[in-house]
């Protein structure tokens, strides 16, 4: 079985080697934990975002920058393809770890989740377990974690703090924006899982999503980065599943089926009093999904993109 922490550590070490070129800053904590700042107090950038995304996916996907035509305006985009969709996306990339210690809060994603088993139900469903000596984690946060946080993370992963390797990038940073758009394939799989699709039948995944500009603080950028997937994210999967079930479920996957669809996410979130529980979780999905069912050799598609909402979200002005 592939160790997501072993493959992720290789990418982390590359980031250490090219820290200056990628505008990163390395922090060695007293407990031995290594923390890379990819956008909190340094510039970071597109290269850092690519490496951040590679770690999230345990380096089990190909990532490539491309462009997206948004109403006649060229914006950057990222293309993701993987032949290990469940391990890369669900065992590693899925942001399923809410890290809260004292006043510090971050969303954790990447290989270390498989050591902490966050969430346990998902790992049981996909029948995956990692037992590597080192833990590699990506934190979405405006602040670097203090030692009390890295101590807690290391304990939860059952590793020594000196074997803990963390990269941090805020949502309102170029690297942070890139790694969120790179979740395009994972977001579709997560939505499929939530509606009863047997995700273990997914053999490969492909997706493309535009990358948000920095539009404000982290809350505003949380809106625009999610909108990249919700309104203009496209996915394609190869599965071996019952064809009738594919036809039944695929129409329920796109974000457009959600009651919270139709406005920039920041607007929806604000109207909900910034309470996630008042927002329909079904909106967190790609705008379009296509499935090639391999047993029947049939292909089905559902959903459509909405460039107008994304234009509003980005706040682009023509001069």
Briefly characterize the structure:
The chain is an alpha+beta fold.
Q: C-alpha Rg, in Å?
A: 19 Å
Number of strands: 12
Low-confidence runs: none
Q: SSE order, as H and E?
A: HEEHEEHEEHHEHEHHEHEHHEEH
| Average pLDDT metric | 97
Distance between the termini: 54 Å
User: Sheet bearing the most strands, described?
Assistant: 6 strands, mixed
Which class do the helix and strand fractions yield? Answer: alpha+beta
Strand content: 15-25%
Per the principal axes of the C-alpha atoms, what is the gross shape? globular
Going across the biggest sheet, name each strand in turn.
Answer: 1-2-8-7-6-5
Q: Helical content, roughly?
A: 25-40%
Protein described:
35% of the residues lie in helices and 24% in strands. It has 319 residues and is of the alpha+beta class. Strands 1-2-8-7-6-5 form a 6-stranded mixed sheet, sandwiched between helices. Strands 3-4-9-10-11-12 form a 6-stranded mixed sheet. The radius of gyration is 19 Å and the shape is globular. The mean pLDDT is 97.
Features of the shown structure:
globular; 35% helix; alpha+beta; 319 residues
List the helices and strands and how they pair.
Blueprint: H1 4-17, E1 25-28, E2 34-37, H2 46-56, E3 62-70, E4 73-82, H3 85-93, E5 97-101, E6 104-109, H4 113-116, H5 120-126, E7 135-140, H6 147-157, E8 164-169, H7 174-181, H8 184-194, E9 202-210, H9 218-232, E10 234-239, H10 243-250, H11 265-271, E11 288-293, E12 298-303, H12 307-314
Parallel strand pairs: 2-8, 7-8, 10-11
Antiparallel strand pairs: 1-2, 3-4, 4-9, 5-6, 6-7, 9-10, 11-12
């Amino acid at each position: 079985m592939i160790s997501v922490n072993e493959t992720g550590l290789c990418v982390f070490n590359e980031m250490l080697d090219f820290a200056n070129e990628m505008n990163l800053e390395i922090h060695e904590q007293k407990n031995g934990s290594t923390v890379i700042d990819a956008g909190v107090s340094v510039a970071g950038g597109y290269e850092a975002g690519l490496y951040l995304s590679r770690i999230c996916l345990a380096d089990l996907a190909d990532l490539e920058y491309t462009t997206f035509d948004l109403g006649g305006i060229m914006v950057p985009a990222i293309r993701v393809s993987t032949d290990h969709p469940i391990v890369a996306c669900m065992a590693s990339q899925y942001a399923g770890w809410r890290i809260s210690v004292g006043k510090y809060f971050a969303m954790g994603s990447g290989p270390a989740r498989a050591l902490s088993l966050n969430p346990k139900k998902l790992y049981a469903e996909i029948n995956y377990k990692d037992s590597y000596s080192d833990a590699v984690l990506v934190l979405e946060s405006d602040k670097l974690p203090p030692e009390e946080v890295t101590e807690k993370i290391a304990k939860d992963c059952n590793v020594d703090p000196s074997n803990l390797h963390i990269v941090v990038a805020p949502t309102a940073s170029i690297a942070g924006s890139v790694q969120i758009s790179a979740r395009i394939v994972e977001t579709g799989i997560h939505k499929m899982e939530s509606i009863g699709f047997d995700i273990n039948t997914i053999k490969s995944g492909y997706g493309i999503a535009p990358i948000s500009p920095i539009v404000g603080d982290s809350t505003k950028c949380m809106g625009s980065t999610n909108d990249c997937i919700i309104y203009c994210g496209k996915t394609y999967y190869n599965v071996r599943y019952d064809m009738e079930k594919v036809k039944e479920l695929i129409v329920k996957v796109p974000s457009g089926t959600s009651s919270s669809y139709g406005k920039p996410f920041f607007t929806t979130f604000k109207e909900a009093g910034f309470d996630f529980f008042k927002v329909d979780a079904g909106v967190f999905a790609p705008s379009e999904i296509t499935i090639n069912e391999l047993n029947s050799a049939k292909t089905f598609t559902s959903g459509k993109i909405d460039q107008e909402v994304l234009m509003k979200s980005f706040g682009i002005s023509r001069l």
